[in-house]
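User: I'm putting together a small comparison set for a docking exercise, and I want a reference complex before I start. The sequence is below, and the ligand is SN-glycerol-3-phosphate. Could you produce the 3D structure with the ligand included, as structure tokens?
Assistant: Of course. I'll restate your input first, then give the structure tokens for the complex.
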Amino acid sequence: MNVPRPLWPYPRIVAHRGGGLLAPENTLAAIRLARNLGFTGVEFDVKLTGDGVPVLMHDDTLERTTDGSGAVADASYQEIAKLDAGSWFGNEFGGEPVPSFAAASALCREAGVWANIEIKPSPGQERETGEAVARTAKLLWTGSHPLPLLSSFSALALEAAAVESPELPRALLVVEVPPNWLAQLDRLQCVALHVSHRYLDAALVKAVHDAGRGVLTYTVNDSETALDMLEWGVDALVTDQLDAITPAFA
Ligand code: G3P
Ligand code: MG
């Protein structure tokens, strides 16, 4: 499986939402756990609090992953920072906070863990989230190599990120691959396509590589699929199964 893939200077096996299924998603505990299991790359989701602070959070609302309620975009950072983002997952994670983007960056840098930062705007905040995440990431990862990779399902967010911090690499996230994928990658100046494994095949991997771009696939949770994907030449895969699909896989 040691095919050189010069388009991809990043880790090949990436922990989804920090710690996959082994820790509460998008927390520092999750990133620490991934690091302790030998992962050198994590994916996490970033959105803005009501007062514009980037924090790690997947959903638009607080209910599923914290003891708070309501929209993230309606709560201040001070309110969100007091919430418990760990107990829903397990008592041993009780009191785990919603991390600021800055805290996640500090941990990643200190631990030597690369980040795929998914820009996950609340509805209607696509541009401001893309801009804020790109501006903050540029400062937080100054001098880091390789730089983090910004990805998003939102073309508006990627556009804003490109204007704000053109030097930070970007990837377009899709579920199904749209027919105009190459035009979109060109327009948004993306270095990679991030695509659901359910809609990927070997021909598409080749086409993306022929276009000079990398391919990451998500969320690959069984070993057989992971091996198929790597066979096809996929550059990286994002997984929840940190104990089964380990960095040793690639
Ligand atoms: O970035 C890959 C993956 O995280 C996208 O889906 O919903 O888990 O953020 P989601
Ligand atoms: Mg994500």
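The two ends are 6 Å apart (CA to CA). The helical segments are 28-36, 77-81, 101-111, 126-140, 155-164, 181-187, 202-210, 223-231.
User: Thanks, that's exactly what I needed.
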